[in-house]
Design brief:
By secondary structure, this protein is α+β, with helices and mostly antiparallel strands. The protein is built from five helices and six strands, in the order H-H-E-H-E-E-E-H-E-E-H.
């Protein structure tokens, strides 16, 4: 093999290694849980309206929401992130979106997550209505993202998808995440 061919093969190999799924997770050789049961409620592929600046009358503070504690303690990562891109495409099943995020600060979790990662929103996912309504206004928003990788149904072991819940990047939400982390450390 010539030097040129060897260099091209090496570059091609690097390029293929850099290409991956749009999950943004690494280390999928670990056993992944099924996305079922209570996990469907915690990592619901949802976006809270306050995360996109839509005011809601909320009576419960994040610190009293047990789901915030559970998401923090069972998730692979809890990050403050900035929405960098929102792209959409029309498919046979309907319109879907890809939300590109950049991690600003890792708040919790020790699981794998890239600094830049992408979340997929299908046409029937809980986040679909929010993304459709606020698509352009989401870019630049700072949010708190709870993520966990789950086994992809029908895929070989170790291949997974990131499931998520996006909340407002508010002082109250950050306080609730920090309290959940402290509670877990005390155990």
């Amino acid at each position: 093999m010539s030097r040129w061919a060897g260099a091209c093969a090496a570059l091609l190999g690097l390029g293929l290694a850099a290409c991956g799924g749009s999950t943004g997770a690494r280390g999928s050789d670990r056993p992944l849980p099924a996305w079922s049961g209570h996990a469907l409620d915690l990592f619901d592929d949802g976006i809270e309206p306050m995360a996109v600046g839509y005011p809601m009358d909320t009576t419960a503070a994040p610190e009293s929401d047990t789901r915030v504690r559970e998401r923090t303690q069972t998730g692979d990562a809890v990050v403050r992130a900035t929405v960098m891109t929102v792209t959409s495409k029309v498919e046979d099943a309907g319109r879907s979106w890809q939300i590109g995020l950049h991690t600003v600060q890792r708040l919790g979790g020790s699981g794998p997550i890239d600094a830049d990662f992408t979340l997929s929103v299908g046409p029937h996912d809980p986040a679909a209505g929010i993304v459709q309504a606020f698509e352009g206004r989401m870019i630049g928003k700072s949010v708190i993202v709870f993520v966990r990788e789950f086994a992809r149904e029908g895929a070989p072991p170790g291949e997974g998808d990131l499931r998520f819940h996006i909340a407002s990047d508010s002082p109250d939400e950050q306080k609730a995440v920090n309290a959940a982390i402290l509670a877990q450390q005390v155990r």
